[in-house]
């Protein structure tokens, strides 16, 4: 079998850094769950785009008479949540469906649930949090209409991200519970240490003993002469 070489993130060749992860949904994820894993990946991408739009809106907020701390925090959220979102909740979901790992399912539920709550708070938009949500945008119309219009875009996108995250959590939970998953299974994986490097589904299916084909003599035993049945 060909060795799997890390391919994510896809960095240009002139950068001396190498990808850190191997990601191939079509190759590693069962076909029944590929669309869901891709959807979770797209939610991560959309959330990163939302954080970029939020920076632009926070800059308009600052120029229109707001506080510069919101712009600084918006940059911090992009730098922090973009890579952490991929590592902390998309990768657990990817590994959970790849190897049917209860521990990774639980990690996804806890971390992605916290991400969902944070995204809801960002959609609300409390002042001083570095997020242009509904509250910040609506209240700023009385100060600067043009800046407030810019602030509506991340408010809408944060709301869409929160809705998409909620749908993903419910779908993954339905699949996990329907397959007999439980917190006890996650504890067993933790105690046994299999959560560190769980075998893939292909490895689980191919890990059998015995001969896959019946043994035959090396030389065929043909009937003598022309005595064929």
Automatic annotation (TrEMBL):
Gene Ontology annotations of biological process type: protein transport
Designated name of the protein: Secretory carrier-associated membrane protein
Function: Probably involved in membrane protein trafficking.
Swiss-Prot/TrEMBL keywords: Membrane, Phosphoprotein, Protein transport, Transmembrane, Transmembrane helix, Transport
Places the protein is found: Membrane
Species whose genome carries this gene: Aquila chrysaetos chrysaetos
Composition skew (Polar residues), residue ranges: 197-212
One Pfam short name: SCAMP
Keyword Lipoprotein belongs to the record: no
Topological type in the membrane: Multi-pass membrane protein
Transmembrane regions listed in the UniProt entry: 44-63, 69-90, 102-125, 145-170
Keyword Phosphoprotein: yes
Similarity annotation: Belongs to the SCAMP family.
Cellular component terms per the entry's GO annotation: recycling endosome membrane; trans-Golgi network membrane
Residues covered by region (Disordered): 197-229
